[in-house]
Design a protein that fits this description.
384 residues; alpha/beta; FAD/NAD(P)-binding domain; seven-stranded mixed beta sheet; 9 helices; 19 strands
Length: 384
């Protein structure tokens, strides 16, 4: 057994870990970093979206694959459109494959970074309560560091109903003019029952190529295999022509709860979905993770300590908590909630709210857009 020391350990080479590593290198960090990943390579079948390219670090903006200035919501025979003229509020998309290719080109060959792929590891709980370091056990090796970031930590949730976001998306090639390439369908064909809210998300890259994704916010366990079959039925329904070819799939499950409590081991810092870096009410995370990575890297580079700033502002966490509480109590109301927001809030206010840049007036507009009774009831009714 060998004992080694590094400055930082990053356990998990996913979006959070690689974003932090990129930010550290771009800000001139010169310490030693160990990256440990149990997979042989990162998962590249993912698409990340957000509002406003100016919200993204200038070094990453060239990775934006597509921008849209219009998006829509629909359900129960009604459709609501949002349009903006400004890139500040445009809906942007980039793909994991491009992000990781760029990151590994930037990080390749740097002598201060050690990569361990396809490697099992175990966190060690530091015996000395006053110690600030972290420790990691590998096969035949034990490594300690001043700072540790873990994207694979366990989580605990309170008893009772919790909501998960399940999504299965098909990238499809169709006959020409099957899609309106200028508009994203954020939530199409919204339906709900007492435990599940379902909609279709359509991301058109051009008139004959798009991501068609079936999404469920559900309090029951959903089968991704069954959802893939249901998504195939949507793709082959005839709504997108008869000449449809599925090129690839992407799928996943995200926790939708502000009450997530990471199970910390010693001084390890939980990051990613398990570190509450996802907007609980929507599942959007890319911008939040980039902001966290930049702030954390700046603090480590300038002061050699961690930033105490939370990944998501407490005001947005509080609003998300109340919104999700209403959904947990009356999931069938979900289409009405999202339709009310789409109908009564304009595109600019909506985009600012989704990127945590809303003004006080914006927040009031969001609150006024919602049906008041279920929210008042949720405020004063304890959960069991």
């Amino acid at each position: 057994m060998t004992n080694d020391n590094v400055d930082i350990i990053i356990r998990g080479a996913g979006l959070s870990g690689i974003s932090l590593l990129l930010a550290l290198i771009e800000q001139g960090y010169s310490g030693s970093v160990l990256v440990v990943e149990k997979r042989a390579e990162p998962e590249t079948q993912k698409t990340w979206c957000f509002w406003g390219e100016e919200n993204l670090s200038s070094s990453l903006r060239h990775l934006i694959k597509r921008r849209w200035f219009s998006w829509s919501f629909s359900g129960d025979g009604q459709e609501y459109h949002h349009c903006t003229q400004s890139s500040e509020h445009a809906y942007c998309c980039l793909q994991a494959e491009d992000f990781y290719q760029y990151a590994f080109e930037k990080l390749k060959g740097l002598p201060t970074i050690e990569w361990l792929w396809n490697t099992d590891s175990e966190l060690i709980d530091t015996v000395d309560a006053n110690a600030n370091n972290v420790e990691l056990a590998l096969k035949g090796r034990r490594v300690s560091a001043s700072f540790g970031f873990d994207s694979a930590c366990g989580i605990s949730l309170p008893e009772g109903n919790t909501i998960n976001q399940y999504f299965v998306g098909a990238w499809v090639k169709t006959s020409p003019q099957s899609f309106n390439a200028k508009k994203v369908a954020l939530m199409s064909n919204m339906t709900a029952d007492e435990s599940c809210f379902e909609f279709t998300y359509i991301l058109p890259f051009n008139s004959d190529y798009a991501l068609i994704e079936l999404t469920r916010f559900s309090m029951r366990d959903e089968s991704l295999a069954d959802m893939q079959s249901a998504c195939e039925d949507i793709v082959n329904s005839g709504d997108y022509g008869n000449d449809v070819v599925i090129k690839k799939w992407e799928k996943g499950v995200l926790p939708m709860d502000t009450r997530i409590a990471p199970v910390k081991v010693g001084n390890w810092n939980c990051i990613g979905a398990r570190g509450s870096m996802i907007r609980a009410s929507s599942g959007y995370a890319f911008l939040t993770i980039q902001r966290w990575a930049q702030k954390t890297a700046q603090s480590l580079c300038s002061e050699n300590k961690l930033s105490l700033a939370k990944p998501i502002s407490p005001i947005y966490s509080a609003l998300d908590f109340l919104f999700l509480k209403v959904m947990r109590k009356n999931m069938a109301l979900s289409p009405t909630l999202f339709s009310s927001m789409a109908k009564n809030v304009n595109a600019v206010v909506f985009a600012r709210f989704m990127t945590e840049k809303a003004t006080f007036s914006d927040v009031l507009s969001i609150i006024k857009a919602m049906p008041i009774r279920p929210f008042v009831k949720a405020l004063f009714t304890p959960e069991h």
